[in-house]
User: Which sequence fits this backbone?
């Protein structure tokens, strides 16, 4: 329906003039004063665009008014008004002014005053409120007008400054601005884990009709459900998060990085990083109506909202939000440490969970030994609930702690990298003879480049002041295997894991002077231009081996 500007302007102008003239001729009644107020409201309102979503900014306790006109001459003209609050609840209403039959009419000579009085008295009955609402839900009013009418929309926010969107349409036959929701718009929770929630929802009819321009967007937060995508974006902005420069709507959402989410509002596509601490995060799933939300916190309640979004018009419709609480993380299993007993612990790097060991002291001094076998591990030790040590492990680590009898020590181990890590742990009284051998200052193996030949290499390593057994092993490898061999080496494994043919020799040595506690070996019988992996194993009194850091050496091609 078109806007009838002439129809609108003429009645308002004449009605105001009529009211002013009448006020000078007779006492003003309360109904007449109310009529004048309504006319003033109409006259000081903005026109509402037809077929376009309008953003309206509201100041606290200050009403804002818009009007629209339905054209004369159409029978049963349909129209609809959709209002979307973007933050706090608002109040809004629709008032209608219907022109009295035969008004405005020409005045006959001598009867002008009588006509003005009679029309001004009839007018109050022609202004009525046909709809009002208070809340923060998306509401749509659908009406039907049988003759010419002027409509006034009034909006009020009593909590704080806010903004809303308003969509008026008088064309109900050419499709909808907003995507359609299914008859059952609920979101179903079909799976709950410790850190995951799986959701599913029924397809929107709009997806089947406009698959290329329609997609689903899912919002996750720890506070509450959102009634609209507009409200979600407002919450993000008010939280103090900085939004990066916006991108055009033509950008495909599938080009986004996995750690990014997008917010669609005001004809813009904004990209923000996922955040924790209860902020809103969003992921758009295309036309898939099943999604598993990952990386959630255990024993936490989350709220989930799904919006169907038209990428061409940026309009969206909200499914009925739901919530779910992730499962409680099971209590970590605690393994008892016994005096002098060695425990081998393998940690899953992907799960990043702590492995707990408990030890009750029977002496005041306690000695903890950690032998890092693979990967990178962090250890955290508490005594009766208070932290006494926390550090990253490297090689063989001894920790001596002093406390009281029957103190309870809790040792927590966690892998600090994605791959699996492993460590050997021992706890014993301080005076107890340790199972692990006395170690040199360095576990590195050195090779001498000048002593390399086509058939032999010379290596050296440090010893200790304690007589110990050292065994040397070699392994022929290819150049592309070097990195993998060095990364996967288990420093806790002994010679029993090696093939017999790889063994070179075993020897005993020590020196009371640490400056001279070094030994060398020349390994013969090698092939020219070949890579070899060398390992040295140190055996202490208990027979538990410690593996030196592997060394790769290449023999000369020509001699």
Assistant:
């Amino acid at each position: 329906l078109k806007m009838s500007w002439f129809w609108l302007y003429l009645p308002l102008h004449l009605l105001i003039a009529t009211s002013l003239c009448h006020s000078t001729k007779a006492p003003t009644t309360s109904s007449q004063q109310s009529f004048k107020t309504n006319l003033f409201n109409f006259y000081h309102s903005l026109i509402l665009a037809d077929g376009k979503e309008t953003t309206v900014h509201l100041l606290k306790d200050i009403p804002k008014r818009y009007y629209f006109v339905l054209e004369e001459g159409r029978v049963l003209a349909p129209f609809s008004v959709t209002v979307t609050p973007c933050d706090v609840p608002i109040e809004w209403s629709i008032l209608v002014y219907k022109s009295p039959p035969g008004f405005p009419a020409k005045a006959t000579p001598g009867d002008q005053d009588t006509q003005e009085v009679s029309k001004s008295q009839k007018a109050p009955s022609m202004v009525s409120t046909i709809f009002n609402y208070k809340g923060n839900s998306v509401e749509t009013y659908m009406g039907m007008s049988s003759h010419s009418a002027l409509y006034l929309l009034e909006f009020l926010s009593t909590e704080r400054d806010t903004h809303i969107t308003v969509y008026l349409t008088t064309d109900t036959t050419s499709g909808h601005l907003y995507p359609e929701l299914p008859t059952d718009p609920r979101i179903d929770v079909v799976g709950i884990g410790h850190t995951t929630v799986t959701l599913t929802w029924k397809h929107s009819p709009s997806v089947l009709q406009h698959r290329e321009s329609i997609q689903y967007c899912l919002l996750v937060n720890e506070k509450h459900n959102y009634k609209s995508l507009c409200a979600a974006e407002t919450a993000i902005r008010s939280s103090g998060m900085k939004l990066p420069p916006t991108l055009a709507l033509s950008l495909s959402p599938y080009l986004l990085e996995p750690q990014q989410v997008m917010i669609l509002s005001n004809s813009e596509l904004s990209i923000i990083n996922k955040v924790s601490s209860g902020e809103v995060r969003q992921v758009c799933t295309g036309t898939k109506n099943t999604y598993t939300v990952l990386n959630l916190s255990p024993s936490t309640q989350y709220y989930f909202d799904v919006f169907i979004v038209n990428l061409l018009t940026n309009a969206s419709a909200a499914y009925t939000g739901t919530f779910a609480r992730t499962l409680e993380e099971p209590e970590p299993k605690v393994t008892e440490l016994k005096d002098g007993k060695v425990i081998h612990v393998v940690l899953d790097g992907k799960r990043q969970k702590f492995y707990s060991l408990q030890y009750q002291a029977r002496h005041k001094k306690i000695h903890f030994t950690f032998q890092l076998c693979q990967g990178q591990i962090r250890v955290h030790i508490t005594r009766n609930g208070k932290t006494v040590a926390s550090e990253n492990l490297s090689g063989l680590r001894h920790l001596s702690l002093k406390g009281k009898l029957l103190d309870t020590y809790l040792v927590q181990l966690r892998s600090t990298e994605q791959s699996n890590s492993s460590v050997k742990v021992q706890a014993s009284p301080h005076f107890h003879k340790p199972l692990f051998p006395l170690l040199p200052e360095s576990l590195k193996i050195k090779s001498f480049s000048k002593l390399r030949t086509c058939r032999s290499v010379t290596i050296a390593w440090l010893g200790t002041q304690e007589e110990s057994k050292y065994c040397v092993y070699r392994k022929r490898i290819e150049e592309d295997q070097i990195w993998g061999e060095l990364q996967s080496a288990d420093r806790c494994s002994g010679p029993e894991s090696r093939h017999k043919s790889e063994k070179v020799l075993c020897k005993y040595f020590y020196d009371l002077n640490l400056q001279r506690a070094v030994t060398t070996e020349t390994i013969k019988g090698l092939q020219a231009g070949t890579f070899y992996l060398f390992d040295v194993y140190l055996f202490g009194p208990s027979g538990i081996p410690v593996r030196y850091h592997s060394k790769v050496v290449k023999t000369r091609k020509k001699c």
